[in-house]
Amino acid sequence: MLCLLGAPGLGSLGLGVPWLGVPCLGVPGLGFPGLGVPEVGAAEPPAEDPSAGAHSADSVPESRTPLASACGAPTESPVPGARYLFQAFSELDHGASPQSWVVRQDGVGRIWIGNTTGFLEFDGVDWRRHQLPRHHPVRALDVDAGGTVWLAGGKDAGYLAPDEFGRTEFVSVSHRLPADVEFGEFWTVSCNSAGVWFQSDRAVFFESWGAADSVMVAHVAAPAGFGKASMVDDTVYFVDGNANLYAGGDGGEVRKEPLERDGPRLLDPDENFVSYSIVGLAGDLLIASNQGLFRRSADGVLSSFGSPLLRNTIEQYPVYSLEPVGDGLALGTLGAGVLFVDGAGDLTTHLSTDDGFPDDMVLDLYLDHENALWAALDSGIARIEVAGPFLTWESHNRLRGGLQDLHVTED
Fold first, then answer.
1. What's the distance, Cα to Cα, between the start and end of the chain in Å?
2. How far apart are CA 345 and CA 306, in angstroms?
3. pLDDT 10s digits, 210-256
4. Does the pTM of the predicted model rise above 0.90?
């Protein structure tokens, strides 16, 4: 047992990194694939400038919080009532929009973030801003096994490569998209050993590493559209608006996976099904959607996931992003911050604005190579120390004032 002795009026010591951001600039109504609702706080992209280059990049050298190495593997489960430490970054740090959509890391450790005004590069000290040719928001980004960054925004799709002067350049592959397919806007990019998958709300496209100069393979969605695709164990999965699960093959083919409902009222037949994120869980698939959190077993049976407390929470605040952390999961919600659960779906801890977290609207979670958890937020970016040696207890544990003494008992 850990006993803490505090005294009122002494201030808070070591209770986390303060957030240096500004109030949320978002507007109610987050845009999801297939729902036709505009994203929070995003402006219409400006008209295309034919004279614009492939990209632009600005360095923001005054980074307040350098990236630090994590201290080991993610903790198996935090002590009840404890909170993880985190670092927060705002538009004052990187100079772009407060709204970020996706986080990934390349082979040399740089963090790449899709943002409403383009995409960001962070080397642990300095931030750099980049834009697509037509200044579209970048919601889709991934890194292949060779370290190449692939990304898409609006109707632009391509990868990053250095130009003759060593500057980052966007190389478009949009000319290899089938001309007769109307696909809407891109939402995810997923790289595996066979190639790269570009997913929009109306179609999925595949470019094989062995046929990089040919027209991409296309799969057009039913009128209900596609939800967001996810990569699990080198296989891309996506779900359509009728709750049909699909898996992509190595040659770009798509196969329908068995999906049996465990109970007649598991899904609402009158509501379009929109999947937000899919991860692996002990040989099964865990699917986050607008209708709840579901576990799909290896034999195709779909069932609800999580404790009653978790289900009640996500009924009001849907889970939009999933990321395995240690022996559990981190759940990024639309309104309740980041929830941490064990493998059975029981809540272990959480981070929200009540704890000083920058925002409760979490659009992506990503565990980096140093076992730190990144969160792309509607207003801000956060790096959570899930592998760090320290946890915090604060006023939510009725611990007020400064810590004067600490004693560990045997029970």
1. 5
2. 4
3. 887 788 999 998 788 999 999 999 999 999 998 999 999 998 999 99
4. no
In the structure encoding, which two tokens stand for residue 289, read together?
Answer: 């959607």
Give the type of residue at 8: P
